[in-house]
Amino acid sequence: MGGPKSGRWGRRTRRTTVEACLSIDAAQWQREEILQPGCSKTGVQTWTVPATGVLLASIRYEVNTRDAAYPWLELSYSLPGYTWGPGPYVRDTVDLVTTGLHFGGLRWWFRCPLVGRSGPCGRRVQKLHYYGSHFGCRQCHRLTYTSCQRAHQAERLAGRVAQIRCQIDIIQRGLASAQRRFERFTAGR
Ligand SMILES: [Zn+2]
Predict the structure, then answer these.
(1) What's the gap in Å between 9 CA and the centre of ligand 1?
(2) Which of 9, 78, 97, 185 has its CA 20 to 30 A from that of 170?
(3) Residue 188: CB atoms within 10 Å
(4) In angstroms, what is the span from residue 17 Cα to ligand 1's centroid?
(5) Which residues surround ligand 1, an ion (CB under 5 A)?
(6) pLDDT tens digits for 14-37?
(7) What is the pTM of this model?
(8) Which is nearest to 60 in space by CA: 135, 7, 131?
(9) How far apart are the first and last CA of the chain?
């Protein structure tokens, strides 16, 4: 395995889905005014089970966008348990990026902080996902989407159906041939 911040590059038989991970979303944070120019703020992001509202995990964030040339975000979380509480803490520093919108205004992005074998990732992304022990982009964590996995399952199933049809065809031809042989045999008696 790579360095302390490396993503998981090894092969996995079944890829984890994005939906199964804890994620932070730059667009959502922008709507909630966590990401905005010229400010510094701290807060706690929580994740709950939608049906029950039970707390799943929480992390502390610190956003600093006072220096427009170097806006950053620090994510702190205590492990195990994934809830913000007594240390020791894991800290991920994430660079923030803005792009101008067509009709004015800014759009905020995270820069993936993970470092892989080929060096820092640095992808500009809307979402970072928690997997392994750090936040990183979907590509670094080799995450897939549930819809994508379902499509692959459907593809595999279609392949299996075709295979079974082919086997049935062979069996039916064999039976027909045996039937003809039997008919010839009984006719000849
Ligand atoms: Zn990445």
Answers:
(1) 11
(2) 185
(3) 6
(4) 15
(5) 112, 114, 121, 123, 136-137, 140
(6) 677 777 778 999 999 999 999 999
(7) 0.67
(8) 135
(9) 76
